[in-house]
Amino acid sequence: MAKSISLTRYLVEQQRVDGLIPSQLRLLLEVVARACKSISHSVNKGALGEVLGSAGSENVQGEIQKKLDIIANEVLIEANEWGGHLAAMASEEMDGIYQVPNRYPRGEYLLLFDPLDGSSNIDVNVSIGTIFSVLLKPEGPQLAEQDFLQAGSQQVAAGYCVYGPQTTLVLTVGHGVAMFTLDREQGSFVLTQEDVRIPEDTQEFAINMSNMRHWDAPTTRYIQECLQGRDGPRGKDFNMRWIASMVADVHRILTRGGVFLYPWDKREPNQAGKLRLMYEANPMAWLVEQAGGGATNGHRRILDIAPAQLHQRVSVVLGSKNEVERVTQYYAQATPA
Ligand code: AHG
Ligand code: MN
Ligand code: MN
């Protein structure tokens, strides 16, 4: 019988055998996984756990918070604040950074998260998830929001947990992408796929088509060409999927390829896009690159963007490499040199 490898064993081997991660980072990842397990249980209970519906409050981006947005945020904070591995946390659901309270020891890592991605899908029983990104705190005794403003290329770990028909944790520490499925009877995540690879070509795109009239020319050109199918310039038919949970759309792309776009649009001309750079785009971009895909904002690699703000937004094109390159070329051709 093939041996089953738990997340704990996988991380211990990464630390001890391969020397790929320090012990404090291993602890951090185990704690995040435990928090995700707890969130998964709440998601599963749904109406029985009284976790559905609105919380009646707004977050810093002016979005109505769902009960589960707040529950997931609290679970992640409570799980992570006492272990000694973190200096501070930042979240979509908190205006500023959350420093580890003085009563606990402080570690050298910074954790950023979107506690509940796909909030509009919570009440309708469609896949949602948690996205996270780990950075090292820069040297120095002080701790400030500025410490978080590092490019995505500086991440030391990133991942997500998707709460779907299965609960799956997907992780990178910079040596490829691994997937772990939650075994509810054992209560542990079990390695189910290593060395995840995204096919370079695809015939499947993901975009919110209802925004088409608001897009700019390069995105419109790309999607129109896909829609023309076999008779158009692409010479092949395309399929479309849009789950409205980035975590679930990215999971599909890591599993069978595809391209995901959330472009800038005219509804909010002063915002770079809808998605948040530091705890949505950066971790997803790194996972996708680690699996052989591409991730740009239409102009440049997402991981190279130097953030100016914690809740900064960004335009996103990610997935199968050749499609991301094509979209990025269309932007280059449309922008005068
Ligand atoms: P969140 O629930 O964390 O606010 O994120 C939702 C995001 C992303 O997951 C998804 O791809 C996108 O918003 C959906 O946007 P539309 O409602 O425009 O489809
Ligand atoms: Mn989100
Ligand atoms: Mn969210």
Instruction: Measure the end-to-end span.
Output: 60 Å
Order of helices and strands: HHEEHEEEEEEEEEHEHEEHEEEH
Q: How many domain units?
A: 2
Number of beta-strand segments: 17
- Provide the structure class: alpha+beta
Number of helices: 7
- Rounded to an integer, what's the Rg over CA atoms? 20 Å
Q: What is the global morphology? A: globular
Kindly report the CATH topology of the largest domain. Answer: Fructose-1,6-Bisphosphatase, Chain A, domain 1
How would you write the strand order of the largest sheet? 4-3-5-6-7-8-9-10
The residue-averaged pLDDT reads: 96
Q: What would you note in describing this structure?
A:
With 337 residues, this protein is of the alpha+beta class. The chain has two domains: 7-193, Fructose-1,6-Bisphosphatase, subunit A, domain 1 (Fructose-1,6-Bisphosphatase, Chain A, domain 1, 2-Layer Sandwich), CATH 3.30.540; 204-333, D-Maltodextrin-Binding Protein, domain 2 (3-Layer(aba) Sandwich). The protein is built from seven helices and 17 strands. The protein has an eight-stranded mixed sheet with strand order 4-3-5-6-7-8-9-10, with helices on both faces. It has a five-stranded mixed sheet with strand order 12-11-13-17-15, sandwiched between helices. Strand 3 and strand 4 (98-99) form a beta hairpin. Helix 1 (7-17) packs antiparallel against helix 2 and helix 2 packs antiparallel against helix 3. The chain is globular. The mean pLDDT is 96. The structure holds 2,5-anhydro-1,6-di-O-phosphono-D-glucitol and manganese (II) ion (MN) (2 copies). 2,5-anhydro-1,6-di-O-phosphono-D-glucitol binds at residues 63, 92, 114, 117-120, 208, 244-246, 262, 274.
